[in-house]
Write a structure and sequence with these properties.
Strand 10 and strand 11 (278-285) form a beta hairpin. 45% of the residues are buried. The chain has helices at 2-19, 44-56, 101-105, 141-157, 160-164, 185-191, 198-204, 220-226, 229-235, 249-259, 306-309, 316-322, 395-411, 440-444, 447-453, 472-488, and strands spanning 32-40, 61-64, 76-78, 85-87, 110-112, 122-126, 131-132, 242-244, 263-264, 267-275, 278-285, 290-300, 326-336, 344-347, 365-366, 368-371, 380-387, 424-437, 460-462. The chain starts with a helix and ends with a helix. By secondary structure, the chain is α/β, with parallel strands linked by helices. The protein has a domain at 2-74 and 250-326 and 443-488: FAD/NAD(P)-binding domain (3-Layer(bba) Sandwich), CATH 3.50.50.60. The strands form four sheets. Strands 6, 7, 13, 14, 15, 16, 17 and 18 form an eight-stranded mixed β-sheet that branches. Strands 1, 2, 9, 10, 11, 12 and 19 form a seven-stranded mixed β-sheet that branches. The protein has a two-stranded antiparallel ribbon with strand order 3-4.
Length: 489
């Protein structure tokens, strides 16, 4: 019912935007910004694209960013007492073509790194009941890695890696997409006898590729956005992984300094008019101030969800196209609670005691509580929460899920009695849509090639994890392939 109501509301917004005319006389000259390109979204893709547009292609640009900083899913927290740093969003980078050169160009240092807090004691419990799983035993890691290596070799042998990295530019037309890629993941791994990789790729992809429901029902193509062969090689230890010295936010702070007044922070587009060579956007800041942006071209660098696209006066073909997308919602955070043990509490369904290959959770869920050693006595834990209903699983709902999990764990004696203590939010980030994709039927009908045909339509281009693998280095290389055409158009 809620989805239907929202669809009706979206239709109203789209119709209003399509017929509304922006009156420039409503804006003072100081509130009108003229640029060659307007970029909506200052995450990994949007920030990188803006730098390339201005510094390499020498075109004027403005970034419209809803948050008070650039970086998107990058979340770096510095403990005020110890000064220690914890990245609780994007945590690492791996070599992909020449993408890492961007750090050098930005004069940002990166160093070899390894996943943190992995040597903590582990406690497995079903957060839906609070019951500890005393008889649960993980699949041997060697078995999982062997299956992942087989998976990587398979994708390379069949050419799937070229179809999904860095984006879907080389994906065949719908009717020619390999059947393997349109299989549910569970059927794919069974077909190739690599089921023992499931619990390892599940944890690596945030327990289900951004909360799109039951893991093994995801299309293999959707899964490959979150676990592409390039990342799989890093997971296997075949190539190094890096982190930014001083925290991953350092890069985006440097970009913000470089771009200076070419960024509108705490701002969202509320109204628009789009045509080839003539883009008009009304951006409103959190304090209500409005700016009119006049640009020749528009680059949308946020996931093309119904919610994100509502202000962009979609025409009927665009509205129908984007109405077919599916996505969940995920959150990452640092929390504190004195009753949590200095360990990693892993949310594991009771069924996993009998079937450790499939320790999969039904949404919504809290993935676990990972003790962050860097903060010592502060008892800080990293958590992620995920839900498959984007509209319903907002920040209050996700935080309520965290508190509910703690209460259930305490009720069953898995952790001590809470004594009325509530969870303390140290730092929280709503990561927004996750697991972005469409159905196998829509892919066969040509959804993806239609998506790429939209590049440049009405003066608008798209980048970001809606169109490519969900890893920063791959998004940067996707940009490198996209921006030349945008500039030449």
């Amino acid at each position: 019912m809620l989805r239907n109501q929202f669809a009706g509301l979206l239709g109203l917004v789209v119709l209003q935007g399509a017929f509304a005319k922006i009156d420039q006389s409503d804006f003072a000259p100081a509130d009108i910004i003229e640029r060659d390109v307007a970029v909506v979204g200052g995450g990994a893709a949007g920030s990188h694209a803006a730098v390339r547009i201005r510094e390499y292609y020498r075109r004027s640009v403005v970034i419209i960013e809803k948050e008070g900083n650039l970086g998107g899913h990058v979340n770096t927290y510095q403990d005020p007492k110890t000064g220690n740093i914890q990245d609780y969003g994007v945590a690492m980078y791996f070599p992909y073509q020449d993408a890492l050169d961007f750090f050098t160009w930005m004069n940002v240092n990166i160093s070899l790194t390894f996943p943190a807090n992995q040597d903590n004691p582990k406690i497995y419990a079903d957060f839906s009941t609070g019951q500890q799983l005393v008889n649960f035993t993980e699949i041997e890691r060697s078995q999982g890695l062997e299956a992942i290596a087989k998976f990587v070799n398979l994708t390379i042998e069949k050419g799937y890696d070229q179809m999904v990295q860095p984006g879907y530019t080389n994906l065949p037309p719908g009717k020619d997409i390999p059947e393997d890629l349109l299989l549910p993941l569970g059927e794919f791994v069974k077909k190739y006898d690599i089921e023992t990789m499931l619990p390892f790729i599940y944890s690596s992809t945030g327990s289900g590729v951004g909360s799109r429901g039951y893991f093994t029902k995801l299309l293999t193509l959707t899964f490959l956005k979150a676990f592409p062969p390039g990342w799989a090689r890093a997971y296997l230890g075949e190539i190094p992984i890096y982190a930014v010295d001083g925290g991953n936010q350092v890069l985006y702070n440097e970009i913000a300094t470089l771009m200076r007044r070419d960024v509108l922070f705490n701002s969202t587009v509320i109204e628009s008019s789009r045509a080839a060579g003539k883009i008009e956007l009304v951006a409103q800041s959190s304090d209500g101030t409005k700016k009119l942006i006049l640009a020749k071209k528009l680059l949308i660098a946020v996931p093309p969800t119904r919610e994100n696209l509502a202000p962009f006066d979609l025409d009927e073909a665009e509205r129908v196209h984007f109405s077919k997308t599916k996505y969940g919602r995920s959150h990452t955070a640092l929390i504190s609670h004195s009753k949590l043990p200095e360990a990693n509490l892993v949310n594991t369904p009771e069924s996993a005691s009998q079937s450790p290959i499939t320790p999969f959770l039904q949404t919504p869920f809290v993935i676990g509580f990972t003790y962050v050693k860097a903060f010592g006595d502060a008892k800080v834990f990293q958590i992620s929460a995920a839900g498959d209903n984007y509209t319903a699983f907002d920040v209050p709902a996700a935080q309520a899920a965290v508190q509910d999990a703690l209460e259930k764990l305490a009720e069953k004696g898995t952790i001590p009695d809470l004594e009325g203590e509530k969870v303390k939010i140290v730092s929280w980030d709503d990561n927004g849509p996750g697991g972005f994709g469409v159905s196998a039927e829509d892919l066969r009908a040509g959804w993806m090639e239609d998506m790429y045909k939209m590049q440049g339509k009405r003066g608008t281009w798209y980048t970001g994890n809606g169109l490519g693998a969900d890893f920063t280095v791959m998004l940067w290389k996707f940009n490198d392939g996209l921006l030349g055409g945008l500039i030449r158009a």
